[in-house]
Each structure stands twice: as C-alpha cells, then as structure tokens.
C-alpha cells in the first residue's frame, strides 16, 4: 500500500475542517453532466486503468468472488492506521454510487490536499454485487424513463442482498447463509476494523435523506448544506420505516435489524416474516464502525417535497396504501401460484418474486394496523399523501416487473408451455396498466445525475472529515 503525500502532522492537526468541507462542496458542484450509468465491465475497466496509471497511489486487491464467478476487487488509496470502506452496487438496482466511487477515487488519487483532509486508508469497492448489477444493465443507458427502468429492474431477494445478508442470531431470527459477496465484505471489515462504513445506496423518488450510525459533531449541518448547495431538496415524505429514529430532518439513525425485530414484535407482528439476515450496521458495530448512507432519488415531484397540510387524514392515506398493497399482493400471488408448476428455471427473478410477492400482504397488513393507531388520526401533509401513494406505484412497477421477467425468461428461452405464456400475457396486461398509471403522474422531474453523485461524494467526504476530526472517544 503506497501513499501519495508525506503527511505533515502539524498541518493535519491545524486543518480547519470547515474550510475542507467548503472545498469538498465546491468540488461536488463541478461534475460534468451525466446521463447514463456504467455497466459492470465499463466500471471495472475505468478502475483498472486508474490503478495502472497511478501505481504509486492506488492499489488493486482481490477480496472475493461473486456467485457467478466474477473477481471482486477493492482499490486502496491513502495510508495510516484508520480505515474507511466505501462500496457501491450494494443494492444492484441503485447505481448512483458507480459514478460516486469513480469520482471519489480519481480525486483522492489526484488531489493530495483532499486526501490530506480525510487522511485514512480508503478501501473502495466499485461493485460488490456484479451479478446483480448485470441484471439491471438493461436500463442503465436510459435511466430517466421510469417505465423503461421498471421493465428492466432487478432487486435480489433479501437473503441475496449484500446489505441484508450478514449473519444474525437474535431471538427467533437466525441467519448464517451469507453469500460470497457478503463474506468478502465481512472479511474486509474483520481485517480493517473500519472507523467508517459507507454503503452507496439510492432511493427512487422524493428528496435526499441519510442514515448515520451516530450523531457526529458538525455532520448534520453538512448533510443539510450539501444538497442545498447543489440545488436538491431534502426528503420530507414518508420514511422508509415507521420505527426510524430521527437525528435531524432527513437524517435518520442507521437502522439495526435487531431494533426492527423488536419494533415488529412490539406491534404483535411476527418479525421473522420481515427480518431475515442482519445488516452491515449490525455486523460492523462490534468494531465501533460508524455507518453512513446517503439516499438519493432519480426523480422528484413538487408534491413529494411539499409539507403543507393536504386536507386528507393520515389514517386514510395509510388505509388506502394498505388496500393497494393487499390488492397488488393478491394479483401477484395468483400469477405466481399459477406459473410455478410450469416454471423450470430457478432464475434470480423467480427467487426474488418468491421472496417479495408474499411480503406485499405482510406490508399491507402492517400498514392497515398502523392506520388504526390513534397517532395516525391527524391531517397528512401533501408530501405524505404523494409519497405513500407512490410507494404502491413503485412496488407495482418493481415486483410486477420482476415476475414478468421471471416468466419471460422461460418464454425467451423457448421452454414455456402454452399455459405459462397465457399466464404471462394476463400478468403483462395488469403490468401494462400499472405502467400507464405511473406514466400518467404529471410533474415528475428527472434529477441531474451529476448533482446526485455530487451529494453522495460530498457527504461521504464530509462525514469522513468530521469523524477524523473528532476528539478520541
Ligand atoms: Zn439500497
């Protein structure tokens, strides 16, 4: 492992963190326009070229192998005793991080001042789940069209997601089938005891929000200032889960699988139906690692960021969402049950469908229960109405789309019996209607990818700088 600058400890100690962060935000605002996402091979070729051109400052090291046999590499920059892990493609349908890792690595290699302001060993993994990312490549060249995105979308079953397949032994939950990609990350965490663990995720629609392992001095102000500087809104819609702990607006405490388990149990819901494996935060907390995640949407809508009162009761919003999810679950369960006897291939789309389709009913029932809680009897904001409605649209597009792909895989392979083709056609008619419903939403804005990347880049560097500047704990 090599270093590219000789650090001057006096200078580091005297570095003004605020001015470093201003510099980081300025850099984040200079990204050239981006309109596509790179495929896996293109992304890795960029990193290999960077390592070949800068052998003294960036080192490639193999850390594992994907299930389909791809070598997984990390690229190491910087020196010291503190380690920071940044990994992209952790959910393979979330490729904003593919651009973020490129820009992060390029700047840390080329800008000694920047590296000095975040002096640590940076372990950058461009793509932790290459097999999953390849199944999303169909939409990477044209990411702005939501229908095209949905028809080419793939999200693995939870036990095949790197983020949620860490080992877990908690009450009635037990999981130890971590896949090779997750094991590669676990080995790296065990080896480096990182001070900071940054999984690069992104959301779909709304505003910018974050998950942070703990409150770090100065970090929240940065996390609010960065999207403001880049002209992106903070998220004010329905949070991903009702049990999230809010550190500040749009900044949530990084959730632990064990806490979510307790929350579901407290509601009288069987936690094992939702909680399978542990998350990266559950695993890395043994080393005191801070988890950081920046969630960025591809699209926004004026209503998604409007906190004015809607005139609609929140309990009715949740009740309608519950009905939508239950109805979606029923349509998909019928189609899956009818298709299963005819399906011959155990594709990732089928495995994902088997995992997600029954969850629609579980989530619908949970939301129905939440709608009946006295706390839900209040006026909803316009953002809450829009984002809860969009949650159902999003799930129709995602999970309907993956079941269509599971059936089409066999049709395209020329092995689908007539019955299966007919089941596929009927499902596709429903799916086409869901696509049309989504297309009919007016006012959707496509957010500039380079600004989303800028937020992820700047927030990662800012959190690192704040953490490194903290007095020893
Ligand atoms: Zn994610």
Topology:
Blueprint: H1 9-14, H2 17-28, H3 40-53, E1 58-65, E2 71-77, E3 83-88, H4 96-110, H5 112-117, E4 121-125, H6 130-134, H7 137-140, H8 146-151, E5 168-170, E6 173-175, H9 180-192, E7 196-200, E8 209-212, H10 219-229, E9 246-248, E10 251-253, H11 257-266, H12 280-284, E11 290-295, E12 299-300, E13 309-313, H13 314-339, H14 348-371, E14 379-381, H15 382-412, H16 418-439, E15 445-446, H17 449-469
Parallel strand pairs: 3-4, 3-7, 7-11, 8-10
Antiparallel strand pairs: 1-2, 2-4, 5-6, 8-11, 9-10, 12-15, 13-14
Helix pairs in contact: 2-17, 3-4, 4-17, 10-17, 13-14, 13-15, 13-16, 14-15, 15-16
The chain binds zinc ion.
Residues 91, 94, 201 line the site of zinc ion.
Quick description:
The chain is an alpha/beta fold. The chain has 17 helices and 15 strands. The longest helix is centred in the C-terminal third of the chain and has 31 residues, at 382-412.
């Amino acid at each position: 492992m090599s270093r590219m600058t000789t650090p001057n400890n006096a200078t580091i100690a005297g570095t003004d963190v605020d001015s470093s962060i201003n510099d980081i935000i300025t850099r984040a605002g200079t990204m050239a326009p981006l309109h596509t996402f790179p495929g896996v091979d293109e992304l890795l070729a960029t990193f290999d070229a960077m390592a070949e051109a800068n052998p003294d400052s960036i080192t490639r090291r193999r850390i594992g192998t994907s299930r389909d046999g791809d070598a997984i590499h990390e690229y190491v920059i910087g020196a010291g005793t503190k380690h920071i892990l940044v990994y992209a493609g952790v959910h393979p349908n979330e490729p904003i991080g593919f651009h973020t890792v490129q820009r992060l690595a390029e700047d840390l290699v080329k800008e000694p001042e920047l590296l000095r302001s975040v002096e640590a060993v940076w372990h950058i993994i461009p793509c932790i789940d290459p097999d999953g990312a390849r199944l999303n490549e169909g939409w990477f060249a044209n990411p702005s069209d939501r229908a095209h995105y949905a028809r080419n979308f793939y999200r693995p079953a939870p036990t095949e997601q790197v983020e949620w397949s860490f080992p877990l032994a908690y009450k009635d939950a037990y999981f130890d089938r971590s896949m090779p990609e997750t094991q590669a990350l676990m080995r790296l965490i065990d080896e480096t005891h990182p001070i900071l663990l940054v999984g690069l995720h992104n959301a779909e629609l709304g505003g910018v929000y974050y998950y942070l392992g703990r409150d770090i001095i100065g970090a929240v102000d940065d996390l609010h200032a960065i999207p403001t500087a880049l002209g992106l809104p903070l998220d004010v819609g329905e949070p991903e889960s009702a049990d999230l702990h809010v550190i500040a607006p749009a900044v949530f405490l990084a959730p632990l699988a064990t806490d979510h388990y307790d929350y579901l149990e407290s509601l009288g819901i069987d936690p094992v139906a939702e909680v399978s494996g542990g998350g990266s935060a559950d695993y890395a907390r043994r080393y005191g690692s801070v988890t950081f995640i920046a969630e960025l949407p591809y699209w926004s809508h004026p209503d998604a960021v409007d906190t004015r009162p809607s005139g609609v009761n929140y309990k009715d919003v949740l009740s309608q969402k519950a009905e939508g999810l239950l109805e979606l679950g029923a349509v998909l369960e019928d189609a899956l049950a009818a298709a299963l006897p005819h399906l011959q291939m155990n594709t990732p789309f089928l495995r994902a469908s088997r995992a997600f389709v029954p969850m629609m009913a579980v989530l619908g029932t949970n939301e129905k229960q939440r709608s009946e809680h006295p706390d839900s009897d209040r006026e909803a904001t316009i953002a809450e109405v829009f984002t809860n409605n969009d949650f159902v649209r999003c799930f129709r597009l995602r999970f309907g789309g993956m079941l269509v792909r599971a059936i089409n895989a066999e049709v395209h392979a020329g092995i689908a019996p007539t019955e299966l083709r007919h089941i596929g056609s009927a499902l596709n008619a429903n799916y086409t209607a869901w696509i049309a419903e989504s297309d009919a939403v007016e006012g959707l804005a496509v957010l500039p990818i380079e600004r989303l990347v800028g937020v992820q880049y700047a927030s990662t560097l800012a959190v690192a700088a704040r953490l490194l500047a903290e007095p020893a704990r």
